[in-house]
Design a protein that fits this description.
Layout: H1 4-19, E1 29-30, H2 33-36, E2 45-46, H3 52-66
Antiparallel strand pairs: 1-2
Length: about 70
């Protein structure tokens, strides 16, 4: 089972990686209901909503990384 600390660290690593490309997802974080589940599940990272410019920047960064 994964710990809340591990999930928080993962979210922060993702936030830093996105920031390195000039991308900010303000609602990025750990999905807290995942930890309230009675079933042992892996925690989810909530990426949340973003505007069109942020989505385009994210797409460009992913394409650049894949090239």
């Amino acid at each position: 089972m994964h710990s809340p600390t591990e999930a928080d660290a993962c979210a922060e690593e993702l936030r830093a990686a996105l920031a390195a490309h000039g991308i900010t997802l303000p609602s990025l974080g750990v999905d807290l209901p995942t930890f309230a589940s009675r079933c042992p599940v892996r925690p989810l990272i909530a990426l949340g909503n973003c505007n069109l410019l942020t989505a385009q920047a994210l797409t460009a960064a992913l394409r650049e990384g894949a090239a």
